Amino acid sequence: MTSRLHSLRDELVRLGEEIGRPVRFMEVCGTHTMSSFRNGLPSVMPANLRLISGPGCPVCVTAQRHIDAAIELAAKDGVIIATYGDMLRVPGRLGSLESRRARGGQVRVVNSARTALEIARREPAKKVVFLGVGFETTAPATAATVLEAAGEGLDNFSVLMCHKRIVPAMMALLEDGEVPLDGFLCPGHVSVVIGSSAYHPVVERYGKACVVAGFEPEQMLLGLVHLARQVLRKRRNVESRKSKAESRKSKSESRKAKSESRKVGTLERRDCETAKSGDGATLIPRLENVYPAVVSETGNRVALELLERVFVVSDTAWRALGTIPRSGFELAPAYQRFDALRRFGLTLGEDEEHPECRCGEVIQGKAEPTECPLFDNGCTPLAPIGPCMVSTEGTCAAWYKYWRETPKRRSGRAEKGFTAQRNGKAES
Amino acid sequence: MTETESALDGVERVVLAHGGGGELTGRLIRDLLLPPLANERLAPLTDGAVLPWEEGELVFTTDSYVVTPLEFPGGDIGTIAVAGTVNDLAVMGATPVALSLGLIIEEGLPIEVLKRVIASISATAREAGVEIVTGDTKVIERRSGDGLFVNTAGIGRLRSGTNLSIASVEPGDVIIINGRLADHGLTIMSVRSGIEFESDLRSDARPLNRLIGRVLDSRAEVKFIRDATRGGLAGVLADISEESRLSIEVDEDRIPISPTARHAAEMLGLDPLSVANEGKIVCVVAGDDAAVVLDAMRSQPEGREAAVIGRVTSTDPPLVELNTSAGGQRIVQRPYGEELPRIC
Looking at the structure, do residues B265 and B202 belong to the same domain, yes or no? Predict the structure, then answer.
């Protein structure tokens, strides 16, 4: 363990103690989920601080109706479905792409949209349908291949559009209001494309702290430290306003906060620039970017232009969250001939999930995987029922793989008071 | 122009007739396969090889090799076909004696690729000190156009007094690995994904019989050895824990891994512990003998970075736990299937 990691962990524990009450932060990225569990972060978090996983795993949030459409397409003569590997085993109403393939459907696993395009070039007699899955991270690559296909007049290539936008999902969760949250650990990958400024509405409209962080344990801990500091400062601000009688005391605390802010030096000052305006000690909540070497405020201009040129923002269906306004992409009118649904005259059906599966609540942070009656009881990575267990980055898969309860750990958690905390509400 | 090239008459790709059993098959074997592999047991091309045998026990193993791409930084399918089977014999405590070689070639395979693979087989066998004493070649109809599947079987002589078994593993034993983890699987995966990493990511495929020989010669109390191929370190540790009903605690900080491999794994969303190796063994050794085994390994190039990475404990229930570099703990399980790079 490096000394940097050590001091960040100690700082987080100290902040946890000082905050005192249960605090819940949410990450909205499958890679954050996996990194957290793979690096054992849950075991180093202070007792009252929780990092829960939100709707950030692209496989988990893909609505069943899209899977069903893909399976239906795979059954058609001459159609090849090209998909990222994670989607193979996601169950639809009619089985999965994997079971379709076993019955003779043409399903190929690709690592990029470009590979799907290459198959279309190589096999002109086939109709290649690429499953366009993922957030703004993978969407630009899909857009680029559509442009390329259009340029070449490659008419045997189309896309089943399932791409999603992350910020509308975060806002839908907050709109729903059922998940008490203190802030978001925002995903580095998506933010490279959309830029840190994309989270301003979450901060301004819903008053939630947002910190953009990388995926190494050190970067995640740094993000969490910044989130925890915001919680602490917010409380101090509330306290300072509460009572005139306490004004003298609050001044000293504010000075203390400022001196803390000076202690972290350049990083903190840089963060303040990311914040909308003003003094970091009083402007709470705010948007911070602790991954500035990789994520800029405005994002990747080329990728954003690709999205704007080839796609239009649309309402789209999410697994368990229903249809969220302006949360997806569809092909712009000029490129609609590459839309697989149109090309094959398909309409999306309805979702019909396993009655006991709680993936929907898991991806909203409303339930922990172990609260699902199917977890490790019929639903395992080898025989998954819900998408959170299918995806390698799903919350249930991460729990199962890295964090299944052992007697040792159970006793540890009880001591730390996790159970009590689960029922606690975060301050709004 | 060499004799081999002239005899193949400028043929650039393998055709079905190369497997037809006629003149073309004869030429393929005589001109392309035999010269690099030449030895006196293979040379007569009889239906089977005759090998002298003394008293003692024989270890017999077989493995089939399928890899895409066929050639990758640090080796090719030929390297792993020889190293894999040699290592399977060696971890059993056997001294490899001879290998068979079965080639299933897809019509359309470039002759040049086949030549390079046979050269690797020859070089790797020489490094391991074993001979290819019998073989078979078949050609199958074209599918993807560049397929080559290899089977090797191997026999070895069990070293006298060797008794490597999970049953002898006990609390207090230590877990030792001979070097950097995950290079092979990550090399393959990054080539497949079209991701180029800087210079030093190469497959670790190589025969380990000499290294294992040194370890067993060291007189240390070695309980069990397994090569960490498919399933990686995680798979081997899970095997040991499940079969022995004992727990294993591993320290992430002590696991040798190159910064390039660490970043590649991070980028591809893979757990280095679950990624395949082709030149790494996991040894369970009595705690007191750790230093002796480390010295024995470090005396060989393929064991230069050997390290004690963990220990066997009696914690109940039996689990493999990792103390992470981030100061936390998590469990380690056998991977469920093929590790696939993530979406985003």
Answer: yes
Q: In this complex, is the C-beta atom of A118 within 8 Å of any C-beta atom belonging to chain B?
A: no
Identity of the residue in A1, A86, A403 whose CB atom sits nearest the CB atom of B343: A86
Whether residue B137 sits in one domain with residue B53: yes
- Residue among B269, B326, B343 minimizing CB distance to A138: B343
Of the residues B158, B180, B204, the one at which a domain ends: B158
Among A90-104, A276-290, B110-124, B131-145, the range with the most confident prediction by mean pLDDT is B110-124
Q: Which of B193, B328, B341 sits opposite A43 (nearest CB)?
A: B328
Chain A nearest-CA residue for B193: A111
The token pair at B82 is 């020889």
Residues paired with B134 in a beta bridge: B100
Task: Report which of residues B337 and A427 the model is more confident about.
Answer: B337
Backbone phi and psi for residue B134, each to the nearest 5 degrees, phi listed first:
-155, 160
According to the model, what pLDDT value does residue B199 have?
56
Torsion angle in degrees (nearest 10) through CA of A124, A129, A131, A137: 50
B253, B269, B317: residue with CB nearest A31? B269
B170: domain CATH number is 3.90.650.10
Q: Is A274 on the interface with B (CB under 8 A)?
A: no
The b-or-e profile of B257-283 (16+ CB within 10 A means b, else e) is: bbebbbebbbbbbbbbbbbbbbbbbbb
Which residues of chain B neighbour A43 with C-beta distances below 8 Å?
328-330
- Give the residue ranges of DSSP H helices in B18-159: 23-27, 34-37, 77-91, 111-128
Q: Nearest CA of chain B to the CA of A179: how many Å?
A: 26
Tell me if B337 is assigned to some domain: no
Name the residue of chain B whose CA is nearest to A139's CA.
B344
- In a shared domain, residues B154 and B170: no
Q: Please check whether residue B4 lies inside any domain of the structure.
A: no
**How many separate domains does chain B show?**
2
The three-class DSSP label of residue A164 is strand
Q: Does the distance separating the beta carbons of B315 and A42 come in below 8 Å?
A: no
Element (H, E) at B266: helix B259-268
* Residue-range domains of chain A with CATH: 1-418 (3.40.50.11740)
Of the candidates B271, B323, B336, which has its C-beta nearest A381's C-beta? B336
Task: Evaluate whether A135 touches A154 at the Cβ level (below 8 Å).
Answer: no
Q: Which of B121, B141, B158 marks a domain boundary?
A: B158
Question: Per residue of chain A (428 residues), what is the pLDDT tens digit?
Answer: 678 888 999 999 999 999 999 999 999 998 899 899 999 998 889 989 999 999 988 888 999 999 999 999 999 999 999 998 888 888 888 789 988 998 888 999 888 899 999 999 999 999 999 999 999 999 999 999 999 999 999 999 999 999 999 999 999 999 988 888 999 999 998 999 999 999 999 999 999 999 999 998 999 999 999 999 999 988 887 777 775 555 665 566 666 555 544 443 333 333 333 333 344 445 678 999 999 999 999 999 999 999 999 999 999 999 878 899 999 999 999 999 999 999 999 999 988 888 899 988 888 888 889 999 999 899 988 888 888 888 878 899 999 988 875 444 444 443 343 333 333 333 33
Nearest to A268 by CA among A236, A311, A230: A230
Burial class (CB in 10 A: 0-12, 13-18, 19+), B13: middle
B326/A221 Cβ within 8 A: yes
Whether residue B176 sits in one domain with residue B113:
no
Determine whether the interchain pair B269/A112 forms a contact, defined as Cβ–Cβ distance below 8 Å.
Answer: no
A39: closest chain B residue by CA: B324
Please state the rounded mean pLDDT for residues B10-25: 85
Q: Does B328 touch chain A (CB under 8 A)?
A: yes
Domain that holds residue B17: 12-158
Q: Does B10 touch chain A (CB under 8 A)?
A: no
- Residues B114 and B170 occupy one common structural domain: no
Same domain, B195 and B81: no
